[in-house]
Specification:
Order of helices and strands: HEEEEEEEEHEEH
Radius of gyration: 19 Å
Largest sheet: 6 strands, antiparallel
CATH superfamily: Invasion associated locus B (IalB) protein
Structural class: alpha+beta
CATH architecture: Sandwich
CATH class: Mainly Beta
Length: 169
């Protein structure tokens, strides 16, 4: 006779092992997502870095669209605390092997999406292209930014034909 309790326990154990192995740091890498239309005016693409095991579920994305290149940090279960000096900004720290750099991205409506300035976006992208991994810390939450698949995906994103705004005639 089949003992369904033991069978259910074994199934739950294998599901837990599979779930843990799919969340490992090694499997996290940059993902390229293009959206192509009949008109370059409406094309856009993004690079997406999924969350690690942090309960805050921080993710990062680089978007290329009509407005140019934008870099976002998404905070899926929190709201960004505003800076005392400027309530439209919040503080995030980039931890490198030998230094810490503080950046102040803009808090977008809803408080769960942060937009980095053009200078900060260029700095972060160049850092990744220079093969320098780092960790972003936001309060007590953090997101390790790996190098896996970044250069290849970024080159694909940059080769995407997008008509920028305002159009040049």
């Amino acid at each position: 006779m089949i003992n369904y309790f033991h069978l259910a326990q074994k199934i739950m154990f294998f599901c837990a092992i599979f779930n843990l192995s799919s969340c490992s740091q090694a499997s996290r890498q940059w993902q390229y997502h293009p959206v192509l239309t009949n008109s370059p005016r409406f094309n856009f693409g993004r690079l997406f870095l999924p969350a690690n095991s942090d309960p805050a579920r921080l993710t990062m994305e680089i978007v290329k669209g009509r407005s140019g290149i934008r870099l976002y940090l998404n905070i899926l279960f929190l709201q960004a605390p505003p800076c005392k000096e400027d309530s439209t900004l919040t503080k995030v720290d980039l931890f490198f092997e030998d230094k810490i750099i503080s950046l102040y991205p803009q808090i977008l409506q809803g408080g769960q999406k942060l937009l980095f300035s053009s200078n900060d976006t260029n700095f972060i992208i160049q850092t990744l292209l220079d093969n320098l991994p780092f960790t972003i810390k936001f309060g007590r939450h953090e997101l390790y930014i790996p190098l896996e698949n970044f250069s290849k995906s970024y080159n694909k994103l940059m080769s995407l034909t997008v008509e920028t705004y305002p159009p040049t005639y």
